[in-house]
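Here's what a typical entry looks like (Quinolinate synthase, chloroplastic):
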Amino acid sequence: ISMDTSTLAAVASFVAFSTKPRLLPPLNPSRSLPRTRGSLAVCCSHSHASPPPSPLPCTASDEEEVAPPRLRLRLLAEEFGALPDADRARRLLAYAAALPRLPQADRVAANRVMGCVTQVWLLGSCDRSGRMRFAADSDSELSRGYCSCLVSALDGAGPEEVLDVDPADLAPLGVAAGARSRVNTWHNVLVGMQKRARAAIAAREGRRPGEPFPSLVIGRDGAVRAQGSYAEAKAKFLSPDQSKISELVNALREKQIGIVAHFYMDPEVQGILTAAKRQWPHIHISDSLVMADSAVQMAEAGCKYIAVLGVDFMSENVRAILDQAGFTQVGVYRMSSEQIGCSLADAASSSAYTHFLKTASRSPPSLHVIYINTSLETKAHTHELVPTITCTSSNVVATILQAFAEIPDLNVWYGPDSYMGANIADLFKRMTIMSDEEITEIHPDHNRKTISSLLQRLHYYQNGNCIVHDMFGHEVVEKIKEEYCDAFLTAHFEVPGEMFSLSMEAKTRGMGVVGSTQNILDFIKYHLKQALDRNVDDHLQFVLGTESGMITSIVAAVRQLFDSYESSKEGASIEVEIVFPVSSDAISKTSIDDSQDSGSSVANDLEQINIVPGVFSGEGCSIHGGCASCPYMKMNSLESLLKICQQLPGEDNSLSVYQASRLNAKTSLGKLVAEVGCEPILHMRHFQVCCPITL
């Protein structure tokens, strides 16, 4: 077998875990690993066309004792470890040659393992004796070799034994030293095997598969299929009313109005705005920080008014930043005559948060890192208690690490989001077991010693959270583990710890992202672009671990990418599925109409119907506090937007209640709240320019 030098070096580096020769003889790929009865070679060489469902319960039989998978993996590690570097690639390719090819009928998108650079297909089911039987294939010989090793280790094991395998068990095979894309192949195939093992256990225990989470599937032609009532409510507004679009664009153009809106906006409004932007450029949908920047750009381009579609602190920020930029004459309008609150902003304005910062003021040197999603008044008052810098979910880690690097013995006090604070602490604990080289890639001035030393000096507020991200708790996480563990996982930094850990684990194998709304959107676009470049049939499934209002921007970005590739080459059948992990807390139980014939079979079978509230019914809000969609953001209605645009400039003072507040109040030190509240934001902007460290 001949290989070019670079490929050989990559493979050798991938599988190497020890330079010392082993005393144990190498195993032959055609020879079975230890079993007391039967032969693994038989299991791995018979035809593996779609294994039929087992007619018997999936209970491991006592008639055939099989070596535990972990022992098999250890023996595989010893086998490769006993070989010189140059021979490891040959042995890997020998394993590939021993792996039977899957029939073409099984090499389909439904059996693809997501997250692998090459195409990898996996089949798995429980046989009549209660053992798991696996088959795999790939269009890459190296990947086939990796698959063959995993099949040889896990084929014939009991379902619980398959679940007992930890990705760390693969490390002795040398994957930790290999190319990241190859490490992902090992891990993602293992995750796929474990998903099939969980399904086998559920079938054995008589547990029926639960209702899938609602989802939207975007096809290559841009068409959208909704699966589930919640998704149907979202899809309804992806093809907006053309008359409403024209009405809005005419008003915007006539009165020179710019619009800045948050990603979490009502889907009806987002659908209209996305379509209107093609005719009027001064419309921008983004996260909260960029909204104010975009408003300044619109003012520079000649817009006389800015409509802000978000919560109140966002319109306050836009007003203050425009004033700072010298555009005091540009009007800023919010979309409701009532207060548009935010659970995080409310937490930061509480007396408990003030107490948290008074404690910080007694522990110098201290720095307060405050989340952008808070009011200017809060930023101003906290800045006078403790030196304060603003952060976003995408730069918070870099901000904190840079602060610790610059100021000896610093105490950092983060707030108000408790989940994000806990997740940051968890991330730093994970970094303590990374190598110095890996830590340096995250921040050049840190190593294991510095990360370990800062843990005791990182403090976070423990009584504030976003009611949307609060939804992603234990029940949702367990369902994702059971049914969506092989999908791409996305999570906002504000989610509870279980969802954070799950997404961080997926991130290590190229299948997850944790960060801001923009980070999530970029992650989806990146993986779709990879699929389009490969140009093979594929189905990409993403679990959306943030507010569901993002779906409009996601669909628009996916359609745009599909369109950009349409004329360049003959397009493969590629689909993108966005899954909404809605908790059962957000599902109402509604009884069948009492007037229905109680004796009918329908009434007996369907005593209750699961209903996920739609856009106008609370959007899946739980009585326990979590919401699948932000009820505050939904106060920004299309009717209000059209009304304000049509009535501007509002010379009869009819729009005064919609004007964004200009904060003329003063702090306890006699300074203007608007000026002091902007200082932490300006500190962050300076940091982003001078220290562009990213994860």
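Residues 69-205 form a domain with the Sufe protein. Chain: A fold (CATH 3.90.1010.10).

More examples are in the samples folder.
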